[in-house]
Amino acid sequence: MELGHVIVLAGGLSYEREVSLRSGRRVAEALRSLDIPVELRDADATLLDSLASDPPDAVFPVLHGAAGEDGSIRDVLELLQVPYVGARPDACRVAWDKPSAKAVVRRAGISTPASVALPKEIFHDLGAASVLARIIDRLGLPLSVKPTRGGSALGASVVREAAELSAAMVGCFAYGDAALVERYVEGTEVAVSVIDREGGPVALPPVEILAPGGLYDYTARYDAGDTEFVTPARLSPEAAARVAETAVTAHRALGLRDISRTDLIVDAAGEVQFLEVNVAPGMTETSLLPRAVSVAGLELGAVCRDLILRRLA
Which GO terms describe its cellular component (predicted)? Predict the structure, then answer.
């Protein structure tokens, strides 16, 4: 099938707008390298009229943050009956909410660190000092703190001393109204991208992440040179098989389609721990999925094209 009009949707108004624009440009360039006509569009007030008046063959969303990953934009695309790459709205809503995603994958037999999810109001109503003390009593130290919804590690931090937890919560609440506090697991951090092929979802080579200070935060993700990546990750064959199986299981359990990226920790005992899943993986020059695509011997443009064609089959 020949593609005549593809829209790559990027930008939006989330904190991750600039990253999304970089991802969108990368996907558009990859598709254009295959002579596919591509229009790079922002999610703005002109979008709906444009889609209705000149419907594309398909839309490839690379919107990061709330609207791009919570299912809302995909709901709109379904209202317009425009084919698009990526998970359906209901699956996005579950994956976007980290505590919900953890509960789903746990039921599928995947290990995930012990955690508690609390809204900002609970600290005001019950007293912040008392709540924080109970968190440490229950989960111990160190801890990972991050918004229950959000991407690019905005508002995320690692707490190694009890005195640091209050500031970490304040930083987290700057980016969301609820916090996920989970036991921090030391080990090898890997990201495993999954793409749907004819035979079903396939895990790409795992990417090992060596971030400065041990925290793969926003700066470490998008400033070239700050973080070291090893692809494929330096894992035993058994551990590599386990992380691939975990990512594919999470992809299926959460009802995702086409593309996802699962973040995992392989602890000292070799056990794989699920951290979170991303339904709109970054596509920038420092992003993990394009690295995995390259090491797998694939071309990013061909992968994106094939995902579009799956939606039109």
Answer: cytoplasm
